[in-house]
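To whoever is on call:

I kicked off a structure prediction for a single chain this morning and the downstream step that reads the tokens threw a length-mismatch warning. I double-checked the sequence; it's 341 residues and nothing unusual in it as far as I can see. Pasting both halves so you can look.
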Amino acid sequence: MSWFFQTDFSNQLIPSLTRLETRNLFMSRQNAVSPSAAVSMTGTSPGAIATKTATKTAPKQVNPSKAARGIMAPQQGAILFEPREFLKARAAIDGQDVFIEWTGSVYAMVPGRPQERLFNITGMNVARGIQDENGVWCLVTRELNYYTDPVSGELIHRWKNPWTEESLTVMHVANDPVQHQLRYPIPARQAGNSASFVLEMFPTYPNPLGNNPQFRDYSPSPDYMASEFFQITVPLDELQDPQRATVDTMTLAWNRIGPWLPWMKMGDLQGQLVYHAYGRRVSGYDELSPMLRQEIEQRLPKYRHAPDNFTQKINMTSWRYFEDNFDAYLEGDRFPINECV
């Protein structure tokens, strides 16, 4: 939720979370990401973030000059958590793999027509929190997201476009890497013993497929524009416990409004996709749904673990994946591409 979930924190957080990708802070990415997504941020001292405290400390009140401006609406009364604390909520700070699974639906919104549910989705993200060579806390992940039939729930590999009646290859999501450097405090809202990180993002940047005549029928717009809304909620006492490397419980929600996916081959048809998904942290790999485990074990074994390190690779997105695998798409291959052959 390609944090799937897949949105660019890195261009949206100015100046505080500058250079950080969001959709993938939480799940897996399904949207396009700016090429600058892997660029590091500037800000909070890595040494201060990494310092361990012996007792619980009260969260900081939001300072507008230091909070994550530019990606969310003003949050009066929000509290700030250092990147190390945030990674305890999103992943873990001891290097262990943390798995998230989500489910949801994707709707088509076309002017003059009622909304239509096109697909259901189910996906996973495996993440870990690490420090890079400069002591900066990083979130390193990879993720999968699958489109399923909204009635039967079965995984689909061919889709009949209801507007053009063309039968098309379904390109499921396989994003690797999805990574972020975290240098600034991240705001959350407190409600009793819960802390909720709420992010509202509106990424806009050049469409990586938009100027290539080869993709005219697939993604013709020169610009990529979307809106994404995330909420991740964890127990506050677990988040603030200095003896813990992570929390036991985390729930998330994700909503997105964005353009047609390239593989849908929608051409110039006006309209947009609306996503709604929800998920949770699972206790480990074995608690993922059988379909996801089967895909990983038989076709995509590297998704059994998060990446070991933060790299200079550009984050993978559905738009880049489509460009990289366009020939396989035209040939009708099954996606994600099998890594075991």
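Update from on-call: the warning came from a stale cache, not from the record. Cleared it. Sanity check on the structure: The chain has eight helices and 15 strands.
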